[in-house]
């Protein structure tokens, strides 16, 4: 853990993704959870679409083309961060298996402490996930999971806000505030230019969009300012609400500028949960019987490794027994450099070459006899022959 050393043992989830990570159990589907996120998506996309259809054409014609371009870029940025905060894993820790640390429920204490920059920080035992929660980790009662650097559970994005998606949530609030201000400001400009004909359809739609933008501006701007203060102080919403570091020193802060750069510019945290793999089903249909082959098929069958079948081997063996041995090759075929006209050389080739004297007396070797005795007998015979020739 950066900036601190652990003083007491305890099972803390590792900071690297595990290949055998346990996927959390499936929760029952509750349609009421999707009502806030559906309403937020409807108001965001619907009001922006009406603004682009009824207000932006007149503004781009009478003022500048940069007005719809600016609002379009801001809206795409808002939508991208909204999707990332909604669908990204916030940093859920995998639960321990049932047979892992099964004795800790009876003998482990409820809290264990670690030291971070000289400050004692408590780690609480999670009876649901069955491990000691790391610092700044908390168990979400809505998602029923332990989330790393837990900030809060946001119903408007239908997801927990943790270490992995807090950056996108913070950028979503900043861009949404800028988008609401732009829609309200350009809509007000359109209304001021058409203040003499409020019964015009474009004016009515623009006024309705301004009401929606003004209604959501106060809570969105207030939440954005609150998170700006939290980021500058290096705190989370959970720590601020519970007053964890009230009257004490926050060991996780690094100064205003470093806290902001840590949220916006740090590398993406690893994902601890393994991806779900689709179940592969193998269909096996017994019995495992090979079809009977005919004699013709067995005779012509040759395996891939070059070994022939039994019947084909028997056929080749019978053919080799019945056939006569081939005649020896002719001298001119064995020695292609010599022609038939040279009769003397041909007669020389038909005769066997003389055998050296020493090889005439070489005894035949048999594996059963003693090699040393045969060697001495062969040496004596060669000596006797050389003496007689002298």
Automatic annotation (TrEMBL):
<feature type="compositionally biased region" description="Low complexity">
    <location>
        <begin position="8"/>
        <end position="17"/>
    </location>
</feature>
<protein>
    <recommendedName>
        <fullName>Palmitoyltransferase</fullName>
        <ecNumber>2.3.1.225</ecNumber>
    </recommendedName>
</protein>
<dbReference type="GO" id="GO:0005886">
    <property type="term" value="C:plasma membrane"/>
</dbReference>
<keyword id="KW-0597">Phosphoprotein</keyword>
<feature type="domain" description="Palmitoyltransferase DHHC">
    <location>
        <begin position="122"/>
        <end position="242"/>
    </location>
</feature>
<keyword id="KW-0808">Transferase</keyword>
<comment type="similarity">
    <text>Belongs to the DHHC palmitoyltransferase family. ERF2/ZDHHC9 subfamily.</text>
</comment>
<feature type="transmembrane region" description="Helical">
    <location>
        <begin position="66"/>
        <end position="87"/>
    </location>
</feature>
<dbReference type="GO" id="GO:0019706">
    <property type="term" value="F:protein-cysteine S-palmitoyltransferase activity"/>
</dbReference>
<keyword id="KW-0472">Membrane</keyword>
<dbReference type="Pfam" id="PF01529">
    <property type="entry name" value="DHHC"/>
</dbReference>
<keyword id="KW-0488">Methylation</keyword>
<keyword id="KW-1133">Transmembrane helix</keyword>
<keyword id="KW-0012">Acyltransferase</keyword>
<keyword id="KW-0812">Transmembrane</keyword>
<keyword id="KW-0564">Palmitate</keyword>
<feature type="transmembrane region" description="Helical">
    <location>
        <begin position="168"/>
        <end position="192"/>
    </location>
</feature>
<keyword id="KW-0449">Lipoprotein</keyword>
<feature type="region of interest" description="Disordered">
    <location>
        <begin position="1"/>
        <end position="24"/>
    </location>
</feature>
<keyword id="KW-1003">Cell membrane</keyword>
<feature type="transmembrane region" description="Helical">
    <location>
        <begin position="34"/>
        <end position="60"/>
    </location>
</feature>
<feature type="transmembrane region" description="Helical">
    <location>
        <begin position="204"/>
        <end position="230"/>
    </location>
</feature>
<dbReference type="InterPro" id="IPR001594">
    <property type="entry name" value="Palmitoyltrfase_DHHC"/>
</dbReference>
């Amino acid at each position: 853990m950066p900036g601190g050393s652990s003083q007491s043992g305890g099972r803390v989830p590792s900071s690297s993704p595990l290949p055998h990570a346990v996927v959390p159990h499936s929760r029952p589907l509750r349609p009421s959870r999707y009502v806030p996120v559906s309403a937020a998506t409807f108001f965001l996309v619907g009001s922006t679409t009406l603004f682009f259809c009824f207000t932006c054409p007149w503004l781009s014609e009478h003022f500048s083309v940069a007005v719809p371009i600016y609002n379009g870029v801001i809206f795409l940025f808002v939508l991208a961060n909204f999707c990332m905060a909604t669908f990204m894993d916030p940093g859920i820790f995998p639960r321990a298996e049932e047979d892992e640390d099964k004795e800790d429920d009876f003998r482990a204490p409820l809290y264990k402490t670690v030291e971070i920059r000289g400050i004692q920080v408590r780690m609480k035992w999670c009876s649901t996930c069955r491990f000691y929660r790391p610092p700044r980790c908390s168990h979400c009662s809505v998602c029923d999971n332990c989330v790393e650097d837990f900030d809060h559970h946001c119903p408007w994005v239908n997801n927990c806000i943790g270490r992995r998606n807090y950056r996108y949530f913070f950028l979503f609030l900043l861009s949404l505030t800028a988008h609401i201000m732009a829609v309200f400001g350009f809509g007000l400009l359109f209304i001021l230019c058409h203040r003499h004909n409020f019964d015009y359809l474009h004016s009515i739609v623009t006024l309705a969009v301004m009401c929606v933008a003004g209604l959501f501006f106060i809570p969105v701007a207030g939440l954005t300012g609150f998170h700006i203060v939290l980021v500058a102080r290096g705190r989370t919403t959970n720590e601020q609400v519970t007053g964890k570091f009230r009257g004490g020193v926050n060991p996780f802060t690094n100064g205003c500028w470093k806290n902001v750069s840590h949220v916006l510019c740090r590398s993406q945290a690893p994902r601890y949960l393994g991806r779900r793999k689709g179940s592969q089903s193998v269909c096996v249909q017994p019995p495992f019987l090979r079809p009977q082959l005919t004699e013709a098929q067995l005779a012509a069958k040759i395996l891939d490794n070059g070994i022939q079948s039994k019947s084909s081997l028997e056929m080749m063996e019978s053919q080799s027994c019945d056939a006569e041995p081939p005649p020896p090759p002719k001298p001119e075929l064995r020695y292609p450099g010599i022609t038939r006209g040279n009769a003397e050389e041909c007669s020389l080739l038909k005769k066997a070459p003389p055998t050296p004297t020493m090889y005439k007396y070489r005894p035949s070797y048999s594996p059963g006899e003693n090699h040393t005795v045969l060697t001495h007998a062969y040496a004596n015979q060669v000596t006797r022959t050389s003496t007689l020739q002298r």
